[in-house]
Write a structure and sequence with these properties.
The protein has 458 residues and is mainly α. Helix content is 71%, strand content 3%. Strands 1-2-3 form a 3-stranded antiparallel beta sheet, with helices on one face. Strand 2 and strand 3 form a beta hairpin.
């Protein structure tokens, strides 16, 4: 009997101990969860993780192989399309003043944009070997045309600069615009061949014949009085020398000589001196020599945050000279406001960054020199044009790349953009990414995946 009385008590005590053990084990299992709770005063993890996750996603997207490819293509096309819109808006009054249809300049620019798009596509599909093969013929053809410009009866002067050749009807050609592209291709091919032979360590091989040929082009340009194009060509030369690794003393010497020659050319010409004196001017001057600079500031100032609207510019009604060429950025500021001008600046910044990225990531010397030269050309010309409109630089008379009116400027610029696209496509990682995105490859990959599925799965 005593044994029978103690058995139930023992069993109940065992059950209670087991229950306590289970509860204790559960409590111990839950303690780490409770310990993970954030302490008072510590930053919240979800918000920080969200910001960090967004940053990592943006950084990964920015470092993708096709980022430069899409930036070059997208920014160049947007600049060109927006430029067509602004050319139509800015040139209507000028065309009517000349007793021409309101869309006269727009139609010419649109035709040039169509031809330029074809050149862009052609250049983007050409291999580097073919680009290098075009260097010498393009240079010799450009020099020949620039010599023809100086022959009376063949060359024609526009706004005091004799640098045009009429092709018949309303079409004319400015060979100096093609000289920029010719110098880039020829200089890049020359420096690449010398780098392959390890000759760039000697200063004479770095300068000769690159600098003498560039000076020949500059001399032909200055014979026509086109100081603005000469400045851009000098910037391209310095860009090529910098990419080739020119020593500081050599770089400074060439820069000093070019600066001295440019200063003498400015001091010996009253028109150029007046342009230099109009930097930051807010008054028209006693004889109206700063008329264009001051009215450019008026156009920008009257635009406000979002502008007066497309077609609603006041300055293009005879107040601002060259509203659709050199000072089209001022009309864009008046009609689109600060938001529009900042958008244009952002597009040029994206194009410049993508060009630098292509030049910095390649291992092929020709691609590095050519991409760096094109980037120097477009960014330097944009800075000179926009700086003149803002009153920060003298008026050099150079168009805004891909934006201003002028087929002679648009065609080589779009071919140069095609060069950048071709170089971005030649990157090994970009090649692999583009190959994966081909429809045929994707379809074959999907078919292989379908065959691997179990027979019972749908």
């Amino acid at each position: 009997m005593p044994a029978d009385d103690t058995a139930p008590a023992a069993r109940s005590a065992a059950r209670s101990r087991a229950g306590v053990a289970l509860r204790g084990g559960t409590d111990r299992a839950r303690r780490p969860v409770a310990a993970r709770a954030p302490r008072p005063g510590t930053p919240r993890a979800p918000g920080g993780n969200g910001v960090r996750r967004l940053y990592e996603q943006a950084r990964k997207a920015w470092d993708r192989p096709l980022t430069a490819y899409y930036l070059i293509l997208g920014s160049a096309l947007l600049i060109t399309v927006l430029g067509l819109v602004m050319v139509y808006s800015a040139s209507m009054i000028k065309a009517l003043e000349l007793s021409l249809p309101a869309s006269y300049f727009f139609r010419k620019q649109f035709l040039a944009a169509v031809i330029g798009t074809g050149l862009l596509l052609l250049a983007s599909r050409m291999p580097s070997k073919l680009h290098r093969a075009l260097a010498y013929p393009l240079l010799m053809g450009t020099v020949f045309l620039m010599v023809l410009v100086q022959i009376p009866g063949i060359g024609h002067a526009v706004n005091g600069n004799q640098n045009w050749i009429y092709l018949g009807g309303p079409f004319q050609l400015q060979p100096s615009e093609f000289g920029k592209l010719a110098l880039i291709l020829w200089g890049a091919d020359l420096l690449a061949r010398k780098q392959d032979k390890r000759l760039l360590t000697q200063w004479k091989h770095m300068l000769v014949p690159l600098v003498p040929v560039a000076f020949i082009l500059l001399g032909l340009i200055m014979l026509g009085g086109d100081m603005g194009t000469a400045i851009i060509l000098t910037a391209i030369l310095f860009g090529l020398l910098w990419l080739a690794g020119a020593p500081t003393r050599l770089f400074a010497g060439v820069l000093g000589v070019a600066g001295f020659v440019g200063l003498m050319l400015i001091r010996t010409n009253e028109n150029r001196m007046s342009r230099l004196s109009c930097i930051g001017a807010i008054d028209l001057g006693p004889q109206g020599e700063c008329w264009q600079a001051v009215h450019g500031i008026y156009a920008l100032a009257s635009g406000g945050w979002f502008g007066s609207g497309l077609g609603a510019s006041v300055e293009k009604w005879g107040q601002l000279p060259e509203p659709h060429t050199d000072f089209i950025f001022a009309i864009a500021g008046e009609e689109l406001g600060l938001a529009g001008t900042l958008s244009v600046l952002a597009l040029f910044a994206a194009l410049g960054y993508a060009g630098i990225r292509v030049a910095g990531r390649t291992e092929e010397p020709f691609v590095r020199y050519a991409a760096g030269g094109v980037t120097t050309w477009i960014t330097a010309q944009a800075v000179v044009n926009i700086g003149a409109v803002l009153g920060l630089l003298p008026i050099a008379g150079v168009p805004l790349p891909l934006f201003s009116y002028g087929g002679s400027a648009l065609l080589p610029s779009m071919f140069a953009v095609g060069l950048l696209i071709a170089f971005a496509r030649e990157d090994p990682a970009a090649k692999a990414a583009l190959a994966v995105r081909r429809p045929g490859v994707r379809w074959k990959t999907m078919r292989r995946r379908v065959k691997r599925r179990p027979s019972g799965e749908r």
